């Protein structure tokens, strides 16, 4: 008996051992990977901006401390 059998949907197969549905649409998978990579880059940029903002606030506090002549 074949391990993969076709379903009603053209690009979906069913694994008879695990009963899993397997998507064979390579174009959709490529689009998914590209979208996932884009989202990861956007999240990385947002994290970098948040870190820079925190660093700038710390520098600003240090400068205020220096101007006032205090140690903290």
SSE topology:
Layout: E1 4-6, E2 12-15, E3 21-23, H1 26-68
Features:
three-stranded antiparallel β-sheet, 3 strands, alpha+beta
Q: What is the percent of helical residues?
A: 55-70%
Number of domains: 1
Overall number of strands: 3
What characteristic shape results from the CA principal axes? rod-shaped
Tally of separate helices: 1
Explain how this protein is built.
The protein is of the alpha+beta class. It has one domain. Helix content is 60%, strand content 14%. It has one helix and three strands; from the N terminus they run βββα. A three-stranded antiparallel β-sheet has the order 1-2-3, with no helix packed on it. β1 (4-6) and β2 form a beta hairpin. The termini are far apart. The mean pLDDT is 92.
Brief overview, please?
With about 70 residues, this protein is an alpha+beta fold.
